[in-house]
Design a protein that fits this description.
This protein is an alpha+beta fold. It has one domain: Winged helix-like DNA-binding domain superfamily/Winged helix DNA-binding domain (Arc Repressor Mutant, subunit A). Helices cover 56% and strands 14% of the residues. The longest helix has 20 residues. The protein is globular, with a radius of gyration of 14 Å.
Length: 87
């Protein structure tokens, strides 16, 4: 679940489309990104909204439960910076 935290963090900045998320998180394949987003939607952390087109557009945003994870992720990030060696 390597990309999950990055996706939640990115969505914490606001709603995004698939391509925006792909560019923001970096070297993730479309299939892995799609799988992670589906997992987050199924877990109730992310809401997927389809806007009828043309063209059809899909937007992802954090639910209230997803928003509640942001402070925890920030603390984990701070801990990692302090305790883990730099890459």
């Amino acid at each position: 679940m390597r990309w999950t935290g990055l996706l939640i963090g990115q969505l914490g900045r606001g709603a995004s489309g698939f391509r925006q998320l792909s560019r923001a998180v970096g070297k993730v394949s479309d299939s892995v990104l799609s799988e992670r987003l589906t997992t987050l939607v199924d877990a109730g952390l992310v809401q997927r909204t389809v806007f009828e087109g043309p063209p059809v557009a899909v937007s992802y945003r954090l639910t209230d439960s997803g928003q509640a994870l942001l402070p925890v992720l920030a603390q984990l990030s701070d801990w990692a910076e302090e305790h883990l060696p730099s890459a």
